[in-house]
């Protein structure tokens, strides 16, 4: 094949494949931030999940040392927020615990494992009790969790 014909075939192949690569149309996101506290104290390293109740994009953010998070859609740019819509909100926060376990020889061993330290109701979208309505523009949602 000559070079011009090869180039034409390659370009034709790309024009047929590229539309299939796009998948869903990219939607405009709105900024979402806020603060998560547990019994009034900032909750660091807590993952905040926004799950759409209809239209919208699932989003996630992690709190910093002061309990502040910024959302991003699962496939979006960092700190870009999420699409407008109604969301159920839930949380994940795990700490390392080191329980003592006896091995087969009866010796005590310590094995580090991760365990959620939040009440179970906060770890599921349907039971957390928190919702958010993301609108066009900046959005701030603070969540005060209680350990009881």
Task: Characterize the structure shown.
- By secondary structure, the chain is mostly beta strands.
- The chain has one domain (28-145): Sandwich (Immunoglobulin-like).
- It is built from one helix and 14 strands, in the order αββββββββββββββ.
- The protein has one helix at 3-22; strands at residues 32-38, 41-42, 47-52, 59-62, 68-70, 72-73, 85-92, 94-97, 100-102, 108-110, 113-116, 130-134, 139-140, 143-145.
- The strands form four sheets. Strands 1, 2, 5, 13 and 14 form a five-stranded mixed sheet that branches.
- The longest helix has 20 residues, at 3-22.
- The chain is elongated.
- The N and C termini lie far apart (75 Å).
- The model is unreliable at 1-22 (pLDDT under 50).
Radius of gyration, in angstroms, nearest whole number = 23 Å
Which structural class best describes the helix and strand composition?
Answer: mainly beta
Largest sheet: 5 strands, mixed
In sequence order, what are the helices and strands, one letter per element? HEEEEEEEEEEEEEE
Helix content: 10-25%
Which architecture name does CATH use? Sandwich
Oligomer: single chain
Overall residue-averaged pLDDT value: 82
Compute the number of strand runs: 14
Specify the number of helices. 1
Poorly predicted segments: 1-22
Q: What is the CATH superfamily?
A: Immunoglobulins
Query: N-to-C terminal Cα separation, in Å?
Result: 75 Å
CATH top level label: Mainly Beta
Remind me, CATH topology? Immunoglobulin-like
The total tally of domains equals: 1
Strand content: 35-45%
Categorize the overall geometry.
Answer: elongated
